[in-house]
From TrEMBL:
UniProt protein name: ArsR family transcriptional regulator
Top-rank taxon: Archaea
Amino acid sequence: MSDTATEGLVDLPPSAKLVYKVLEYNGPLTQKGIVEESMLSARTVRYALERLEGIDAVDEDVYFADARQNLYEITGEIGTENAEAAVCND
């Protein structure tokens, strides 16, 4: 995922960019953890995660401590400097 993924990140709403940065700074988190760290509503975080998954910027895995939840993490395919530039454009 090179320039097209970065372009996809640039086109995302600010809430999705914030969720991306929260995951970048804190590492893998559950949706509840993202809500707490970002101070966004659960609904907004769900929407942002859907958008990030749509451009393959985030992976969803089972959270083994509580199988009812999912663990989200950045795929690592988007270069950090490209992602930073995309997020800072807002």
